[in-house]
Design a protein that fits this description.
Layout: E1 3-9, E2 12-18, E3 23-27, E4 41-42, H1 47-60, H2 77-86, E5 95-96, H3 97-103, H4 110-118, E6 131-132, H5 145-163
Parallel strand pairs: 1-4, 5-6
Antiparallel strand pairs: 1-2, 2-3
């Protein structure tokens, strides 16, 4: 049986899902109904959900840049490859859809990369918000562009503050 819990965050109330051994989803308010399905237990005792809530809270507080959680993202082989490559984008950095396609070995796959990016079931932790348009524009984010801007500003601000001379 899967378990879910809610986490209030600066980008809205997140619904987290786990399957008993791995995190399977992070959902923004606009991407999931507020009430979970009847066969899902809403709890905070699941160790994976507790760890995910703790690590996401640390991320939002500026104390975490890398997540260490067991993940089970379900998708096609291509989607799994895209999501694995997303996880290699460093905190506070961005790349374009075209660059991500090149990293996957197919420079013409930027549209397919965008579609896979949009279907990422574990945003923030699998950092799809770090992918932007070739011209630097904020495009395509399942949680909405305002949340994408917030996440990118949050990361860039934390990196900038580290290098600020005092």
């Amino acid at each position: 049986m899967s378990a879910q819990c809610y986490l209030d965050s600066p980008v809205g109330r997140l619904l987290l899902s786990a399957d008993g051994s791995s995190l399977t989803g992070v959902h923004f308010p606009s991407s999931r109904p507020t009430a979970p399905p009847a066969d899902v237990v809403v709890e905070h005792s699941d160790p994976v959900l507790r760890a995910a809530c703790e690590q996401l809270s640390e991320y939002f507080a500026g104390r975490r840049q890398v997540f260490k959680l067991p993940l089970a993202a379900h998708g096609s082989d291509f989607q799994l490859r895209v999501w694995a490559e997303l996880s290699r984008i460093p905190f506070g950095e961005t790349i374009s859809y075209g660059e991500l396609a090149l990293r996957l070995g197919d420079k013409g796959a930027s549209r397919a990369v965008g579609l896979a990016n949009n279907r990422n079931p574990i945003p923030i932790i699998i950092p799809c918000h770090r992918v932007i348009g070739a011209d630097g524009s904020m495009v395509g984010f399942g949680g909405g562009l305002e949340r994408k801007r917030w996440l990118l500003r949050h990361e860039v601000t934390l990196i900038s503050d580290r290098f600020e001379l005092r």
